[in-house]
């Protein structure tokens, strides 16, 4: 008599794998966290595996319904970390899951995708890896690209924030036949007091990592070309724990003591709402590709127009809603003109822009699409505790 094989012992509905997770903050981390916690709130059993980049973080904990596993870090290499235990831990959890979601770019992505066994692989392609010029930068980029390519070939689906960015990726030929376009989750912030305002003039702002690829030197130059003494530039974001190093020192030197420019540092969740409420215009001047720009979109949802570099991905929230202005990447003069044009938007334009952005981008829209994707891949029968 032939034995009937026992059902596969799934432990999780989904395992999410990425290099950095809480307490690190970045757009990629926030996408992973929001999707993981959102799916957990909908009844899915979700695990996250990441590096233990902060030694004070526990090796394992449960955060908002998500089981978080962290592998110790042996060394740091530029923006990346060397964590020998990450790959075997992630592979073990992936094989015990109905699906695995690997966030790209990641050096371990290729080997992990090959070690997942029968578990369907979903890769989330945020952007192509970018590094500042350096002696080993080219070698590092080629190594990550090769790993990413392996993971994409092994993927049952490739999630991208928008087709505009995906079509301009170095990996587009490997993605096009398995694409799942799911805009990242954007949170509608509660109304808050404008505690960061300082005077009656136009307030321009940026929120994100204070890193080289964000093009903040162009933003400082553009703002300094605006002669209005009542204008303000608020640059918000952590500059003490930026993977690969912060550029806040160079930016302060570039500001040359202009007292209209303020660096706020890290903002709490409540302060982020107050920050958006204090702005007349949000700026996204990145010089490297951004696949979307969650901060700009969240600002737009509150009625703040965005001025973004006219580059694949980051221009999509503006082009899809008409709520903002675009400028040629790296052109400080054009950026200054765009900032002033957006600052002149009327209350009606701001209200209509906020409505259009909220209708198109929301956390629920993202979770609905991700849930449907898991269903198509056979991960619909939820794991019960």
UniProtKB/TrEMBL annotation:
InterPro entries: Glyco_trans_4-like_N. Keywords: Glycosyltransferase, Transferase. The keyword Secreted does not apply. Pfam families: Glyco_trans_1_4, Glyco_trans_4_4. The keyword Glycosyltransferase applies. Residues 27-184 form the Glycosyltransferase subfamily 4-like N-terminal domain. GO terms for molecular function: glycosyltransferase activity. This is D-inositol 3-phosphate glycosyltransferase.
